[in-house]
Design a protein that fits this description.
Layout: H1 5-29, H2 36-54, H3 61-86, H4 94-114, H5 117-140, H6 148-172, H7 186-222, H8 232-249, E1 253-260, H9 263-270, H10 272-289, E2 295-300, E3 303-309, H11 313-331, E4 344-350, H12 357-373, E5 379-381
Parallel strand pairs: 4-5
Antiparallel strand pairs: 1-3, 1-4, 2-3
Helix pairs in contact: 1-2, 1-7, 2-3, 3-4, 3-5, 4-5, 5-6, 6-7, 9-10, 10-11
């Protein structure tokens, strides 16, 4: 099947312009999200390159085919930089970007001087393989937080890399005459393929931004805004799952109820900013003392709860004492206006068979108040049973 290549090029450029506009709109809606502006400018540069190629009959070849080829390569490089920023990696340095562009210009100039369509096709395929492969690598080297939209976008760039590998191999056996573009074969199919890739990638970018926003919203809903720990609602949901899993597996499950000592005096004598500082300091110390699978929650005010899967009461007592000692050292000597150092009292309970989470919390809370009654800055293990308050 033969196509009107110029019409196809103009259509592809228009689609690219629409995609660029959609990316700019996405950036305007979420200007703080890294990478979005780079994706938008990549669409603009690619549109300019495609328009130059589309009018190759009206312009000198070096200003149309060669310059257009360079602009498309620059667009991919800018998109690559955008993906690095979006994924939280260092941006591409200007020196690296300049070296990449200089290399592209040299290759395109060599192809232009050779006046060979297969040579031009080979150079274009090599550039596309390099840059599409770089984006694919950036996406699939992500191990944590790789969302469905991110994986799908990576697949698109991966397929684009494979496509241009095949295109490069086919150009080695291409017997076409030295004319810029022909209306059949791989030339037309390459444009149709590029059009599909642009649409797919832009949709992937929109979905990636949407998933990022949803993750941020979920984090805000489930986290305490001051300390970043789980709030009570999120903790209750995750803890119930852990309790159910523990009942099925028969493994031990321990809970720590922790309360900063004399916290009202800290707020009254040093101010709420100092109180916030000690709360954040405690969470920082606790994060180092606990494991990744442990659940830490700000239960209310200066009170925190930690759920420790696969942990007995004896093992939890070791963890609690380590945390208590580390916090006392981090808090340092008592401020001049406080009668004592800033410390924490901890109560520990281990889940009994068929015991509900509420009873486990109540026993740990009772043990924590026992620790305060016995002098504070200490840990106490809960008894098997505690009276249920009327």
């Amino acid at each position: 099947m033969a196509f009107d290549i110029r019409s196809l090029l103009v259509a592809t450029a228009l689609v690219c312009a629409v995609c660029a506009a959609a990316r700019f709109l996405l950036w305007r809606m979420h200007p703080a999200m890294p990478g979005l502006l780079h994706w938008a400018w990549a669409g603009v540069v690619a549109t300019g390159g495609l328009l130059l190629i589309a009018f190759h009959e009206q312009l000198p070849e070096i200003l149309s085919l060669s310059a257009g080829q360079v602009l498309v390569a620059i667009a991919l490089a800018v998109a690559w930089d955008g993906f690095r920023r979006f994924l939280g990696r260092p941006p591409v340095t200007l020196a690296r970007l300049g070296g990449l562009v200089a290399g592209v210009v040299v290759l395109v100039a060599l192809a232009h001087g050779a006046q060979s369509v297969p040579m031009r096709s080979l150079v274009n395929a090599a550039i596309m393989v390099l840059l599409s492969g770089a984006i694919t690598w950036e996406i699939f080297r992500v191990t944590a937080g790789r969302t469905l939209a991110l994986r799908a976008t990576g697949v698109i760039y991966g397929l684009n890399t494979v496509f241009f590998v095949v295109r490069g191999v086919s150009s080695l056996t291409d017997t076409a005459e030295a004319v810029p573009l022909v209306s059949a074969g791989f030339y037309a199919f390459t444009l149709l393929w590029g059009l599909c890739v642009m649409l797919g990638v832009t949709l992937g970018m929109v979905l990636m931004a949407s998933e990022r926003l949803q993750d941020e919203l979920d984090h805000q809903i489930s986290r305490d805004p001051l300390t970043g720990t789980l709030n009570r609602r999120a903790f209750a949901s995750l803890a119930e799952r852990e309790v159910a899993r523990t009942r099925r597996s028969g493994q031990p499950l321990a809970l720590l109820m922790m309360d900063l000592d004399h916290f009202k005096q800290i707020n009254d004598r040093l101010g709420h900013a100092a109180g916030d500082h000690y709360l954040q300091l405690f969470v920082s110390v606790a994060a180092n003392a606990l494991r990744a699978e442990d659940l830490l929650c700000r239960f209310g005010g200066e009170e925190f709860v930690a759920l420790l899967p696969n942990t007995s009461a004896d093992a939890a007592l070791v963890v609690a004492n380590r945390l208590r000692t580390a916090f006392a050292e981090a808090a340092g000597p008592a401020p001049a206006t406080l009668p004592t150092c800033v410390t924490v009292s901890i109560g520990i309970s281990e889940m009994k068979t068929t015991e509900p989470l509420e009873n486990m919390l109540r026993r740990a809370d009772h043990a924590m108040y026992q620790a305060k009654h016995n002098g504070r800055n200490r840990c106490e293990v809960a008894a098997a049973l505690v009276p249920v308050p009327s």
